[in-house]
Amino acid sequence: MSSTRPYFEAIARQAGAMPQARYVLPQFEERTAYGFKRQDPYAKLFEDRIVFMGVQVDDASADDIMAQLLVLESQDPDGLITMYINSPGGSFTALTAIYDTMQYIKPQVQTVCLGQAASAAAVLLAAGSEGKRLALPNARVLIHQPAMEGMQGQASDIEIVANEIDRMRSWLEDTLAAHTGRDREKIHADLERDKILTAAAAKEYGIVDQVLTSRKTPASPHSS
């Protein structure tokens, strides 16, 4: 049997960010016209048209994200959706499922990297609507080529897997070229090894459009 490593999964191990048990989320109550409503932070963010991708990109998280995007489109086809990203990457099929949904829906999707957008998550960061791809100052972005673990089986099995890896890499290069404006040859060369970018470098590369600083209003020099 041949065995492939999920697309970009190596960086998840590198970062020590494979799925772990989540701590209990705090809940809070809000007063509404119908009484009090108990919520958690993710539900509150969703009400504000914010999708938070803070886990590995796998089939389960992809289903959750796609469902949220489709619901937000049905609620307001013209309203902006914001996707916050802090992810070590994940599988190729989960990546393309989310990517296709982002491109398919009518609302513009603003992407914001806080923490890291590695591998598959970096592609999703770059896939945000033009002019609306953002990063916080200490965020990092990592791109690299698809990889596979050692395989066993007949030569024909290995050839099938190798052809699939080539197809995935070709898609990755074409997609990053389309969203960054970089030459495909440049991206091909950069993907030979892990390429780690600071927020500023990601802006220069074309993965994000702006590096944010703070939403705080500067204090007046005359304030006490």
UniProtKB/TrEMBL annotation:
Compartments in which it is found: Cytoplasm
Primary location: cytoplasm
Listed GO biological process terms: protein quality control for misfolded or incompletely synthesized proteins
Alphabetical UniProt keywords: Cytoplasm, Hydrolase, Protease, Serine protease
GO molecular function list: ATP-dependent peptidase activity; ATPase binding; serine-type endopeptidase activity
Active site residues per record: S119, S119 (nucleophile), H144
Listed InterPro entries: ClpP (IPR001907), ClpP/crotonase-like_dom_sf (IPR029045), ClpP/TepA (IPR023562), ClpP_His_AS (IPR033135), ClpP_Ser_AS (IPR018215)
Subunit annotation: Fourteen ClpP subunits assemble into 2 heptameric rings which stack back to back to give a disk-like structure with a central cavity, resembling the structure of eukaryotic proteasomes.
Entry's family note: Belongs to the peptidase S14 family.
Function: Cleaves peptides in various proteins in a process that requires ATP hydrolysis. Has a chymotrypsin-like activity. Plays a major role in the degradation of misfolded proteins.
Protein name, UniProt field: ATP-dependent Clp protease proteolytic subunit
Organism, as annotated: Actinomyces oris
Taxon lineage: Bacteria, Bacillati, Actinomycetota, Actinomycetes, Actinomycetales
